[in-house]
Amino acid sequence: GKVNTFLSETSVWLQPAPSCNVYILEHITNGKGRANMNITFSTDKIKGQERKAILQIVQDQAKTAALEAIRPILQSTLEAELQVKLGRAKYVARTVSSQPRLCDWQCAGCGCVDANQFIRDGHYQRQLQTGWGTLNHLKIPMVECVKCGHDVRVYWTILEKYQHFWLDLDHKALFGSGFQHSLRQMAQEWSVMLGSSVGLRSIEERINRLEPLVLKSHQAALIKIPPVVQFDGIWFSLQTQTDLIKQDKRGRQRRVHRGERRVVLVALGLWPDGTRQIIDWDVAKAEDQASWETLLNRLYERGLQPEGGLKVIVRDGGGGLGEAVALVYGGQVIEQRC
User: Fold this and answer.
1) What SS3 string covers 183-230?
2) Which pTM was predicted?
């Protein structure tokens, strides 16, 4: 709602310039005057540096609008969680009760976990790096324990303590790692996106923390079993390092990269209501029986079984997949060729 409200308060005016074939786009924001966004369009085709300049202006304005819309949403979410933890709204007096209100927040001084002993204690400001750019001066509520006067250790659902990168950047780190992007390449992309320098170590630590969680997700039991699962392989080229060394343009010694063909074995779950979701995947060197059997056995252990609701397997005519399905399911499900 706050996003729609912000956008509804933003208007764009298209005004004719003195020349009949030129129009000037002026951006009016919240009735406070014109923002720094004056773009001159022409009936002729715009290209080259002129087109890049227009795109840059629009992207900068879109990033600013997104950040300003995100700020109240994040702060409202923090306030809502604080209200639930304390059991009372802002400006409502604390109620003294013999019945403790236990929570996962803990006083740093006395170790108290009774929210009835906690009160609001203003806020502090922090910086948060997001996929839309850097969000400055985000107000984070602080909590104090009335028993000893020390600060309370607060663990927010949407924020990580001592982490300046927000959760949406985890996905970018994970995709960058999966696509074999170098840390240097990812740091350059992040620096442009965030408008500030990002260290290689920061990205590496993020990836190292996420990869075990990805491996764990391949082992977790399936919560909802799809009645139909389609299996297919998607081929791609994977860049790997070799033992060969060459000198780059800056005189540095670099390992030579070589492209190798790999295939992502994908299991796509299909439900009667139209829902489609990838339930598991694996990277292999070929679509042979052994590779498909590894994925199918893992899915079977996670609960993808006829007893759980699986009815149909959709596959292509590849021999390796057909042999693996026959070995793991043994004719217990219907096989549909695609």
Assistant:
1) HHHHHHHHHHHHCCCCCHHHHHHHHHHHHHHHHHHCCCCCCCCCCEEE
2) 0.47
